[in-house]
Amino acid sequence: MKYEKPLRAVLHILCLLPFAWILWQLWLMFNYQPHQLTANPFQYINQYTGDWTIRILLASLAVTPLRKLTKKNWLIKWRRPLGLYAFFYGLLHLGNYVVLDHFFDWTVIWQDLVKRPAMTFGMLALFLMVPLAVTSTKKMIRRLGRSWPRLHRLVYPIAILAVIHNIMMVKADLRQPLIHLSILLLLLGYRIYVKYRPRLVKRLSFS
């Protein structure tokens, strides 16, 4: 495809823009300049990185439906970088929570994980992303063989856990989490439809 490489470059730029923006806002804040990190910057960064983790994760799930609907098979190459960027923002989300929000107070962090289901769901989602990130190289794909696709189906429970975490963490305005939920249900619904449509058509043809 003629524009495949330029489009991949655009993809990387778009995925890094949120990170660049937050770095810029932090620079402004530490230099006592007007910024958009609100009066509670660490809480803002926590929500910001969490939102971008889910957005990019959902974008990675959208690659396969988009490829099938447009017949553009080269789009499949976007799934790996999107998955890795989702993991990157997930690590930023966790790092902000552990380092900036709680200053390595492991007692408080452990209590959060035990007593707050939302935190448990979020941590579990990030934990499950680790094997997907580790096995995303071509070498690991060859080594795992047929086991690789089965392992990477973990992306579905990861997305579900992440969206549940998102909904449970928001206390006031649920519009953004509900948008994430709607997109996730649409993407999962499409996969269910594609998987079971041949059986349904076959049954209807014999009825």
UniProtKB/TrEMBL annotation:
Its cofactor is heme b; FMN. Keywords: Cell membrane, Electron transport, Flavoprotein, FMN, Heme, Iron, Membrane, Metal-binding, Transmembrane, Transmembrane helix, Transport. The keyword Flavoprotein applies. Residues 52-163 form the Ferric oxidoreductase domain. Part of the MsrPQ system that repairs oxidized periplasmic proteins containing methionine sulfoxide residues (Met-O), using respiratory chain electrons. Thus protects these proteins from oxidative-stress damage caused by reactive species of oxygen and chlorine generated by the host defense mechanisms. MsrPQ is essential for the maintenance of envelope integrity under bleach stress, rescuing a wide series of structurally unrelated periplasmic proteins from methionine oxidation. Belongs to the MsrQ family. This is Protein-methionine-sulfoxide reductase heme-binding subunit MsrQ. The lineage of its organism: Bacteria, Pseudomonadati, Pseudomonadota, Alphaproteobacteria, Emcibacterales.
